[in-house]
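fold-stage: in
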Amino acid sequence: MTPSRVLVANRGESACRVIRTLSALGLETIAVHSEADRNARFVEAADHSREIGPATAAHSYLNIDRIIEAGRDAAADALHPGWGFLSESPELARRVEQEGWIYIGPTAQQALQLGDKTQARELAHACSVPCAPSLVPPAPESAEDPSWKRELERWGVPLLIKATRGGGGKGMRIVGDLDRLEESIESAQREALAAFGDASVFIEKLIEPARHIEVQLIGDGLGDVAILGDRECTLQRRHQKLIEESPAPSLPSRVRREMHEAARRLAQSVQYRGAGTVEFLFDGEQFYFLEMNTRLQVEHPVTEQVHGVDIVELQWQVATGQVQLADLEAKPTHGHAIEVRVNAEDPAADFLPSVGTLNRCLWPQMDGIRIDSGVRQGDRISPHYDPMLAKIIAHGDSREHATRRLVAAIDATLIAGVETTLPFCRDLLCSTDFHPGAAHTTTVEQKWSDWQAPQLESHWRQAIDRAARQLLRASASNSPTVAGCWQRLAGKVWP
C-alpha cells in the first residue's frame, strides 16, 4: 500500500519547501517542532504537528528517539528528512527502515558509505573519480610516527582539515603552517563532535584557487542514474555558500561531460536511491572529487527552474517505486537560474548572526522570481538555529537576464528587524567577481572582508519609509499590487 502520511523531520524553510510539494501530491504531512517553533510557519503549513523538545537542537531536531516517537504517535508511514540536521544520518534512515516506514532518501547503508567522507573517497577512487591527496590523522597514541607528517610536507600547504561527517563548513580548518597542525586538528575535532556527534576528521591537500561545481543526480535504487545538470556554488564565505546558479557558466564542455559521468559512476557503484549531489573542485585544468551529499541540497531550486522538474516529487516517486528515469535527461532545459540565500547575518560585522523580530517581511511578486521562505512578518528569529530565512531564485532566458531579475527582486524586498546578507549579495551580483569564471572559493574572504553597507541619505530613508507604508496599504487592499509598489520604489532609490 502506498504511504499517505509523511513526517517531515526538519524545520524552517526546509520543512516549508518539502511540505509544499507533499501537500500538492495529496499526502498528509506531520511537522515536528521544538518549543521555540510552536507558532512557526512550517508548523501551520503541516496537517499535523508534534512537539519534540526544547529549543536546543540537540534535544529536539537532533534527537532521533523523539522524532521516531512523534511519528508513531501521529501514525506516520513515511519520513522526509529535508536538508541539514539529520538528513544525512545513517541512523535515522536505519530507524525509519526498522519502523517499516518509507524513507524518502537513500538506504541506511548508502548514507553510511557516501555520507562518511573517507569512505566516499575510497569509493570514488575505485570508480576512477579524480581525488585530491588525503589521509586520516593517526590516533594520539600513534601520532609520534613521523611518516604521516612527512607525507603532508611532501604535499605542501595549504591543507584542509575536514569533518568526516556533516557539512556546512563545520569541523573545517585551513592549515597554512604545519607547526599549527595539531592545534588545528584538535579544534576541528571539537567542532565536529559538537555539530555532528562524531569527532572524526581527515586531511586533504587544499585545491586553490578553484571553482566549486556540483552535479545533481537522481538514482532509482536499481542501478539507473539520471543526471540533472550542474550548479556553480563558488561564491561562498568560509565554506558557506552565498550565491548558486545553474548551469555552471563557462565550464568547458569536456569537463562538464566528464564531471557528469564521474558522478554517475559513483552513484551507480552503490545503486544509489533518491536525490544526491556530487561536489567537485575545478582548478581550471582538472577537477577533483570533494564529497557527495546524500540528500536534497539547499540550492536545488535553480536546477528545478532550468530543468522543469520538482525534485521533492522525484524523491517521492523513487521512494515509492513510481519513477521512470529514462526520460529525465532528455527533457529540454531552459535558460539560467540564480539563487541568493537570505541569511539573518550582518555582513558589515563579520557576518555575526542577527536575532530579533521581523517587523517587516515583504517579498516581491515579479516575473521569473521564486521565493522559498520559512518565515513571515512578526516571526522571532532565534539564535538556536541556522540563520537562513529564505532564498530568492531568479530564472531568465540567459545568465544576464536572470541576474537583472534577481537584482531587481532584491531591491524589491523589505526585511526589517534583523540584518540580512541581501545587500552584500546584491553587491556581489553587480561586481566583476560575478563575471563567468572570475571567482574562486576564497574570493569573498580575500576581496570582500572590509565590505560596508551603503549609507542612504536621510531623504532616501524617508522615501523608503513612505513607500513601505504605501506597500502595506497596497498589500491589504490589493490595489495597486505589491510588485508595482516596489518596482516604483526600486526605480527611485536604486536607479
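fold-stage: in (second)
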Amino acid sequence: MALFTRTTGLLINKFDEFLDNVEVGLLVFREGVKSYLHGDRESLERHLRKIEALEEKADKLQKEIENDMIVHSILPKDRVEVFRLLDRTDEIIDTTKHSLTEIYVEVPDIPDELKDDFLRLVEVSASAGDELIPAIRTYFTTPYLVRDKLIKVYFFEDETDKLSTEIKTKIFQRMPDLELAKKAHLRYVLHHIESISDRAQDVADLLTGMAIKVIL
C-alpha cells in the first residue's frame, strides 16, 4: 500500500525531483573526477558548477517538502523519520559537491599509475548512492520491497572499503619514492571519495528501520 494518496501528487513529484537531483549529482561527480584525471580543468569547473546548482536545488526542494508535510499534516506519525531521511539523503549530494570542490581547490597530484584505481573507487563509491535512490522510491510505494533493493547499497559500500584499503596499501607500501606529504594528501582525497558510499550506507540503515516499521 502506498504511503501517499492521489491528493498528494504534487508532493510526490517534489520527492521525485529531489531524488533526481541527487542521482544526477552522482553522475556529475563521476564526470568531474574523470575530467580532472584527464587534465581538463575547464571541464572539471563546469561539472563543479553543475553539482553546485543541483545541490542548491535539492536543498530548496527539501525545505519545500518539509513545509508541505507540516502545512498539510501529511504522515504526521512518520514525519520526523521522513525529514531525517531527506536530510541524510541530501548529505550525499553535499558530499559529492564537497569532494569535487576539494579536488578543484587543492589540485592533488595523483600519479599516473594510480589514476585507474581512483576512477574505480569513484565508480564503486558512487554506485552505492545510485542503488540507494530506487530503494527510497520503493519505500513510498511498496515498502516491503525496500530491503531487497538495499542489498546492492551494502555490497558497493563494502567494495569501496576494500578498494580504498588496497589503494592506500599501494600508496604507503609500494611507492617508496613518493613523498610522505603527497601520500597523506592522496589518503585525504580517498577519504572524500569513499565517504559517498558511507553516506549511502547511513541512509540505507535508516531506510531499513523505516520500512520494517511500516510493514509491521
